[in-house]
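Notebook entry, structure prediction.
Reason for the run: the old model in the group folder had no record of what sequence produced it. Starting over properly, with the input documented here first.
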Amino acid sequence: MSRVPPPLNHEEGPVKGRHSRQAPARERIVPVSDPTTPPRPHLPFFVYGTLRPGEVNHGLFLRGRTLREEPARLTDAVLYDGPGYPYAVDEPGGTVTGDLVTARPGTYGRLLAELDRLEEYTPGDPRSLYERVVREVTTEAGPVRAWVYLAAPAVAARLRARGERLRGGDWSARR
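New structure, fully documented this time:
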């Protein structure tokens, strides 16, 4: 059994943020199409930046903790460049390229809390950089409901006003 290293704090490297803080693992549910049908409790994650295979945070947070990783697309969103990581922002007609990641049983709760902390998401906190929301993403097999970290409203407004949009919607193609 491989040991997964603990996430690094802001001063040590790839974990982004103003400071290191523990986020509660509460879930914010945003309906995709039917507001009366809640999502499955353990949704997969759509990742599009440093959590993608081959990127630094994939190795720190996901390696050895996933059942499946498959290419996927998020529609009606675009990417903006951030300080070493991207932000996805809602925008009709846009497409973001990423991967759908399904966590191994027994790792989900801790992984969810660690990803919330990495993405500086705390439910109800206006200082959050991202919001974790449910969106439909498309895989080769068809549509799947997944957690997606989108830029929080205040961050999204700043990015739309003066951010650098990544053409093509694929952060790994920026190099």
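Summary: Residues 1-39 have pLDDT under 50 and may be disordered.
The old model has been moved to the deprecated folder.
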